[in-house]
Amino acid sequence: MENLRLAVIGLGAIGRKYVGMLNEGIKGNTLTAVVARSDINYNWALENGGKEGKFKIFRSTEELFENEGLFDTCVIATPHRNHLETALTAFSHNKHVLCEKPTAAALSEAIKMEEAAKEAGLKLGVIFQWRAVPVMKKMKELLEQGTVGKIKRIKLENTSYFRTLKYHRSGGWRSSWKGEGGGALVNQAQHYIDLWLWLFGVPESIFADVEFGKHSEIAVDDEVSIFMKYENGATGIFVLSTGEVPKTDELCVIGTKGKITLRGNSLWVETYPDSDEYIKTAQCNARDGITVTEEKIDCKAPKTPQRDIFEAFAESVMTGKEPTPNGKDGINAIMLANAAYISSIHQKALTLPIDPGLWDEELKILEEKEN
Predict the structure, then answer these.
(1) Would you call 172 exposed, middle or buried from its count of C-beta atoms within 10 A (0-12, 13-18, 19+)?
(2) What is the pLDDT of residues 107-131, one digit of tens each?
(3) Which residue of 23, 58, 232, 294 is surrounded by the most CB atoms within 10 Å?
(4) pTM summary value
(5) What is the pLDDT of residues 38-65, one digit of tens each?
């Protein structure tokens, strides 16, 4: 197999982006089929490669799988409440799956998807493309080098994803418990939750304050604050809002030997002698004897980091290696989101991991209230 043959299922904004990328060419990948259910999407597909014979167009997932000899992998870009069913169908037809985030709206579904992939001996990848952004990769490199020493505290604040009421009502599935299984936590926040888990790992416990319809007339969440604690004593605060006009995107990591602040495509790195040792031995009352060295690291602006995810996934299929990000990463990201909902609703801290049945029960109640 020279190239992985892909079928893109779903031609909304995300699916169209992937078709465009694949038409331009991504190493190790060839687009051979798309599923376009609506006339609008069918006509778009015709004008963007279908007429030229770059790929075949099918009007349903069922019709696609009747022609399963055309492709090796399904790229799932449908609303995420449909992800599990589509993935299970793909695995039953011996197809690998590269799934748009989140893999599912509920932890139980994400677990089923991962288990199905393992049982079938197939690959499951998740499109968490922010891992491929140069400044994020540099942040991870610095942390792995021990630049900040032992991590003491983490702070993330993101208000980049400003969303209007028009956006929330742009599709019947959007911003609802029945259609989306949640709001910001299972949509916009998933990228940053994944980055957090990729950089720092799964916390021991969380306590969350989730705001439902704070900025728009919606039943689901549009703002969240999560307090996290780690087994080694590190703490973290994760804040995301989709209703604030000022745009903030900042991640700050403070450790015993340094502090790294990420803003945009730059890192501000401050390093100093071990603070734990200094606190114990210093012959003064404050930080008078500490010398801080400062450095700014500018990284290239990302273009389409999804390309890196597609390339890496194709390589994992070709070599047999585990894809990154993978189904387990999808599980952890949605678990933290589900746990945050439960913590906020019941105003209590939760130890991770959680029983997947807890969120299934809560989601059912929320869906019934939405009627």
Answers:
(1) exposed
(2) 999 999 999 999 999 999 999 999 9
(3) 58
(4) 0.96
(5) 999 999 999 999 999 999 999 999 999 9
